[in-house]
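Something for you to look into today, if you have time. I want to see for myself how the chain folds. Leave the record below and I will have a look.
***
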Amino acid sequence: MSAILTSLSVLLILTGIVFFLGAAVGLLRFPDFYVRMHAAGKGDTLSSLLIVLGLAVYQMRDLEAFAEDWTLAFLLLKLLAVVLFIFLTSPTATSTLMDAGWEDGVKPVLDENRGNALEEDCRQP
């Protein structure tokens, strides 16, 4: 059972690292402030959740000690609280930054294939 949980935790942590790398590539390669913020917000939230959940699964590998050691239960509770905090604050912060960019007048990059369609879609009412 311990080997299965260890393998699952390694898989979760490595998947989180891959999503972090994807978010970093998105920040470097995407042409627009809004698209970059989308990549950063989604990638950061998902990868952080996967890594912290991988750490929580890794701590659960010794279930016999879980019944005797309350510090392990508190550690898992803290990790789940971190997951909840990230899940609530990261998308909110990303949305707030994008709204601040819009209010400051940051315009999206025009798509050459659609002409001025993006500009018409982004007009403020």
In short: Helices lie at 2-29, 33-59, 63-68, 70-104, 117-121. The CA atoms of residues 2 and 61 lie 5 Å apart.
